[in-house]
Amino acid sequence: MQKLQSETEEFFPHQVTALLKTRRERSRLQILILKAALVRSFTIFLNWLKFENAIIEPMKKEKILDLFERFEQASLEIEGIECWSARELQTLLGYSKWENFLKVIEKAKEACSNAGSNVTDHFPDVRKTIPMPKGAQKGIEDMALTRYASYLIAQNGDTRKEEIAFAQTYF
User: Which among 33, 72, 107, 165 is least buried, having the fewest CB atoms inside 10 angstroms?
Assistant: First the structure.
């Protein structure tokens, strides 16, 4: 126990390390730390992973630059407001299915509402036309996400994805 406390004092205040008496309390603390990482900062999350002796390979500079360039290219300006297409952001954040991404958007909308903001100001619905075989076109649902909406989506996304980790610092 003494060794565990000395290792954790680098990352956590003394009051928190005192809670690590039992394995069950440690598990509860780990869950709280994960939740705090979503709300506060990616740095706290990395410290927790170091605490757990997890092997993390830092994101390569080339990957960061590539993601930055892709996020910048995907941004649009509508009536003087910087925004991103939800369909494009879906692929940028590593989600392959629209249905799964919609779940993250719904959580972000709830956070926006709880913060007292008008959801329709940050998540307006739009229609997008996509090409179909034989020259036909099809209208699909999309959203024009503000930077704030994109930030909320990044905060509510799957933190195991590198793209989400990047987006949490980008937005």
Answer: 72
Phi first, then psi, for residue 11 (nearest 5°) are -105, -25
Q: What stretches of 75-161 show up as alpha helix (H) in DSSP?
A: 86-92, 98-114, 119-122, 147-156
Closest by CA position to 39, among listed 158, 171, 151, 155: 155
d(CA 147, CA 128): 20
CB 45 within 8 A of CB 34: yes
pLDDT at 139: 83
Chain segment 141-168, per-residue pLDDT in tens: 999 999 999 999 999 999 889 999 999 9
Which residue stretches of the chain are H helix?
Answer: 2-8, 14-17, 23-39, 42-51, 61-74, 86-92, 98-114, 119-122, 147-156, 162-170
Q: Nearest 5°: CA angle at 104, between 77 and 153?
A: 40
CA distances, 5 to each of 19, 20, 49, 91, 146 (Å) = 10, 8, 16, 42, 43
Of 156, 22, 36, the residue nearest 13 (C-alpha): 36
Q: Output phi, psi for 13, to 5 deg.
A: -65, 160
Tokens of 118: 């008008």
